[in-house]
Write a structure and sequence with these properties.
The protein is of the alpha/beta class and 384 residues long. Strands 11-10-9-8-7-6-2-1-14 form a nine-stranded mixed β-sheet. A five-stranded mixed β-sheet has the order 15-19-18-16-17, with no helix packed on it. It has a three-stranded antiparallel β-sheet with strand order 3-4-5. A hairpin with a 2-residue loop joins strand 4 and strand 5. The radius of gyration is 21 Å and the shape is globular. It starts with 24 loop residues before the first strand and ends with a strand.
Amino acid sequence: MMLMSHADNWMSRLPDDTYVAVVTIPGAHDAATGCGWAEGIEMLGDSYARTQDIDLAGLWQVGIRAFDFRPCVYEDYMNLNHGIMPTKMHFEDALCLLRDSLKANPSEFAIIHLLHEQDGDIVQNEYTQRLLEVFRRDDLKNLLVDFKTDLRVSDVRGKILILSRDRYATMPVGGFLTNWTGEINVEKQTAGIIVGKKTEDNGKLYMQDFSDTHGTDGINKKVGAIRQMLLRSTRNKTTSKGSIRWVFNFASGYSKTENIFGNEVSTSDGYRDNATYTHEAFLTFFENNTPGPAGIVLMDFAGVDDSNGYHVRGKELTDALIAFNFRYLDDATALHTISANDTRAGRSSAQWFSLEGRQIGVPKQKGIFLMRQENGLLRKMAVR
């Protein structure tokens, strides 16, 4: 059985004992906007609120594993909106789509960045109740994993980790993202905490979420902020639980607006124009710097290289983020060592792979390899 190398199973190549926090994960900002708009607002949605061209199923297929969902409360369901613009996707249906994708691809996992889109609420003051009702559904509750800063890939395969910027209840389902900032301020960007159910589960959070790039020197500020966060995340040495840093590095933003009734409103082409610069910034960094964890990267127009006349390079960036993982696996944590002459620990019956996922024979030379044991556990091995 060969390890899959195509996008829909790329996480199968991650060693089970790798910390989730050091996995570079491509994600989609306002992920549901590629699913279409509620009846009657199609032109408005396409003009002012579209950040994706591919629907959720398509995003999964190209390798997106982090999803930015913005639920709001309707009378009979929770909808996913971008601001006041309702998409065609219900929150419950989005979770079920991820559920089914994980059942078909149990080596994978998904992370959800959750933010209550209050401006879209039709029913007021019921967000917590309705959200928890969804999370407690029999067909979903066993998929949702509790946050711990030292979660490993084996803990989350086939599951969903929900990280919410709203403290909707006393205890999180997943975790709460606290001290969030959209400012370009190093002290604020590095002061985040992800809160779990127990104090010992809490984790340190870095975030870059500067989004309004249409102002003076806005694009340069955004590109500089992306680069600075990449330098922090890739250079962080994760050697123990205390050194783990969870990172969100947003590529998304809007560089063009229109004045409507005296208000500056972002445009879909503004998201596209911003993407041409920010995606290039990530790609240039990957080409010219020592690889290391880039964190969870939420981008616009993921999985497509061209959108409405803009060369957004969203497919190129998605592929690059996936591939980036396998450039630093040999320097990541949880490296096991075995002698080249050692045939114990099931070495002769195990399956061996290169770091890129190509199946090989039993290694006879020194190096870093992946070993799948008979019980299915995938480990990163240093053959000495």
